[in-house]
């Protein structure tokens, strides 16, 4: 996550905002959450979500931690299950202050609507078809706080022109839908959020799957910030 251009914005939110909440989607072992905590985000205000609780438990084993020494929270389940995460309209700046749920008893992300200060999702969106990516973007938007500066950010496979692309990852060919910088920007600013209410930064970079490797592929590094 350190390589994302907007990462320092997440760090500032964690250090400066009152009761900030950080959500890592597709958190696996919790690596990214541990990173933001190390850089100052309050541990008890962080949440990871992934398909299986076992991944989170393996993270404790890997990092030799426990729920007592690492008080981040976890919600397991399929993000396309509306009981876990349903699409809701973005929070409006005109609405009354949203009450923050008790994170210790969290069983669904729906309880976080309008409360999350920063949402991270890397290597996530490109797993899905175009309509599913739009669905997930709208679901994330419903969780994001209306406070200016609140942010959704991440990185995934991109393309010069949006469409289905064939990528090779670790020797395996995969067909996936990839957005361009233009299509990704217009999706968030106009379809997901009302146009002009967010700032979208999207950069396409060529990266190697291995340090020093010859095989390179385009990656979209992006952020969506509430204005």
TrEMBL record:
Pathway: Secondary metabolite biosynthesis. The keyword S-adenosyl-L-methionine applies. GO terms for molecular function: transferase activity. Keywords: S-adenosyl-L-methionine, Transferase. The keyword Cell membrane does not apply. Belongs to the class I-like SAM-binding methyltransferase superfamily. This is Methyltransferase domain-containing protein. It comes from Suillus plorans.
């Amino acid at each position: 996550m350190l390589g994302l251009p907007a990462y320092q914005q997440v760090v500032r939110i964690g250090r400066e905002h009152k009761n900030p909440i950080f959500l890592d989607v597709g958190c696996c072992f919790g690596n990214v959450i541990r990173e933001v905590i190390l850089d100052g985000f309050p541990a008890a205000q962080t949440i990871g979500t992934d398909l299986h609780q076992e991944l989170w438990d393996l993270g404790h084993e890997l990092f030799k931690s426990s729920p007592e020494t690492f008080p981040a929270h976890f919600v397991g389940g399929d993000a396309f299950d509306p009981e876990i995460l349903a699409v809701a309209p973005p929070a409006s700046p005109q609405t009354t202050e949203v009450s923050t749920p008790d994170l210790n008893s969290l069983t669904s992300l729906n309880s976080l609507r309008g409360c999350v200060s920063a949402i991270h999702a890397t290597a996530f969106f490109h797993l899905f078809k175009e309509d599913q990516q739009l669905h997930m973007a709208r679901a994330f938007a419903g969780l994001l706080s209306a406070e200016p500066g609140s942010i959704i950010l991440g990185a995934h496979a991109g393309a010069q022109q949006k469409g289905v692309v064939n990528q090779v990852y670790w020797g395996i060919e995969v067909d996936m839908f990839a957005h361009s910088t233009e299509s990704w920007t217009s999706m968030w600013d106009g379809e997901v959020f009302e146009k002009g209410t967010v700032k979208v930064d999207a950069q396409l970079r060529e990266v190697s799957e291995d340090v020093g490797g010859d095989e390179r592929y385009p990656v979209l590094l992006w952020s969506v910030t509430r204005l």
